[in-house]
């Protein structure tokens, strides 16, 4: 079978099976490239731009939420891979039966292990987020004085902040227990704001909170854009919008790294122990549980945290 090794396969293979493709050309779900620190900046109208300020040079990993078109392409890949696995099983079962017959006639010969038939319930396939992602930093800063400013041109769409991790290094923290999503539109810079030290995480975890950050010193808070947020002069005249941050639910830790969550953001994201609170949702919104896309979250209570 043909195997596609993703850019971080050496890491993800430890936590998830490799993906098998059949005949279709593998689509590129996400293209991302840093914007160079140059005297002037010109935006490509076909690309979206993501801006983030950090206290130092650091990585931040993003995963794309599948659009309707993405989902159709992904489902097609999975279906073709499933068909191919069934074909491989048919060949494997013929070999198994042949080897079994020989083993039964041969004294002391170990019986072969019967292959497991792939079904819709047991077929394993790489998650969409492992195929559609990019990492910002720690290198290639747009501006490096006073910390770090990163600006990346990416495929337009909706993204989730996955965590402070560089997949090529394999160390860091995932925001698997709570994060935010935002939409990056073509021809515009979406400004995420600034990552800052989160003093609230310096204390002990709340009793019963299984999702409280384990590595508090490594966990930064996200301060959304406001009137005091500095803007590089080269970007001041370009189309730039504050990110419409939305609370995002729990997702699998497919990298097998330290588990944490993005600290609460006033008016956007909150927590009650390990329950994620959508601060933008109406109070009457019923509780829901997130899936791999990390979109659904809990209801919004009256108190902020």
C-alpha termini separation: 50 Å
Q: What profile does the largest beta sheet have?
A: 7 strands, mixed
Radius of gyration: 23 Å
State the helical fraction: 10-25%
**General form:** elongated
Approximate strand percentage: 25-35%
| Helix and strand pattern | EHEEEEHEEEEEEEEEEEE
Low-confidence stretches: 1-19, 284-291, 299-305
Class computed from helices, strands and strand pairing? alpha+beta
Continuous helix count: 2
Number of strands: 17
Mean pLDDT: 83
Would you kindly provide a written description of the structure presented here, covering whatever features stand out?
The chain contains two helices and 17 strands. It is α+β, with helices and mostly antiparallel strands and 305 residues long. The chain has a domain at 31-66 and 132-278. The strands form four sheets. Strands 5, 6, 8, 9, 10, 14 and 15 form a seven-stranded mixed β-sheet that branches. Strands 3, 4, 7, 11, 12 and 13 form a six-stranded mixed β-sheet that branches. It has a two-stranded antiparallel sheet with strand order 1-2. Mean pLDDT is 83; it is low at 1-19, 284-291 and 299-305.
Topology, pairings included?
Elements: E1 3-4, H1 9-12, E2 19-20, E3 32-34, E4 48-54, E5 60-65, H2 68-105, E6 133-136, E7 148-154, E8 157-166, E9 171-174, E10 179-184, E11 189-197, E12 220-223, E13 240-242, E14 246-248, E15 258-259, E16 269-272, E17 275-278
Parallel strand pairs: 4-11, 9-15, 11-13
Antiparallel strand pairs: 1-2, 3-7, 4-7, 5-6, 5-8, 8-9, 8-10, 10-14, 11-12, 16-17
